[in-house]
Design goal:
Blueprint (H helix, E strand, L loop, with lengths): L1 H10 L12 H24 L4 H7 L2 H14 L2 H16 L1 H4 L6 H24 L3 H28 L1 H9 L8
Helix pairs in contact: 2-4, 2-7, 4-5, 5-7, 5-8
């Protein structure tokens, strides 16, 4: 129990920084991002019949959303910053990788929500001068992002046709 308390303490704001306070905007972003992750789970796992590993290789947005929501619920700016690194990479930059038609409109809506969550976290950092938390959160985010990015890149290289369909919005369920 003491170990859990120490980990939780390490993920909160530094003692000389203002504690994190949840607000309505944060709750709205957490709920909407969660709904988008559930929608992607339905598409990949339900409609496309991929396994969980395949889903996560094609949709790395979902783990970054999960990390953001966990950080928000725990009140951990460090975890939310780590998630923001991933959400910027997969959400904000996804706005420029994915097409803007067909099924990708759902993905792009999710990317917009992820970008809004990144802005939410950055505004919190600046308003509350969480500079130490910023450093720790960025390091944690990069430490999570690099291995995830490596696995996804290897999958994209090994499956170029599938990746092209995914990015263009032409990835369809079997039989369609």
């Amino acid at each position: 129990m003491q170990a859990v308390a120490q980990v939780t303490q390490g993920l909160t704001a530094w003692r000389d920084e203002v504690g994190f306070k949840r607000n309505v905007a944060g709750w709205i972003l957490a709920v909407l991002n969660t709904l988008m992750a559930l929608n992607s789970a339905n598409f990949f796992l339900g409609m496309l019949k991929t396994d969980v590993v395949g889903w996560l290789r094609m949709n790395t947005c979902a783990p970054s959303i999960a990390l953001f929501v966990i950080g928000f619920v725990l009140g951990s700016p460090v975890v939310m910053l780590a998630a923001s690194v991933m959400m910027f990479r997969y959400g904000t930059l996804g706005l420029f990788v994915f097409g803007w038609s067909g099924g990708n409109l759902f993905a792009q809506a999710g990317h917009i929500l992820m970008t809004l969550a990144v802005v939410y976290v950055v505004v919190d950092v600046i308003r509350n001068r969480r500079w130490k938390t910023l450093g720790l959160g960025l390091l944690l985010g990069i430490a999570i992002l690099f291995p995830l990015e490596t696995v996804q890149t290897k999958w994209i290289i090994a499956n170029p046709a599938m990746a092209q369909k995914l990015f263009s919005g032409n990835l369809m369920p079997p039989g369609q």
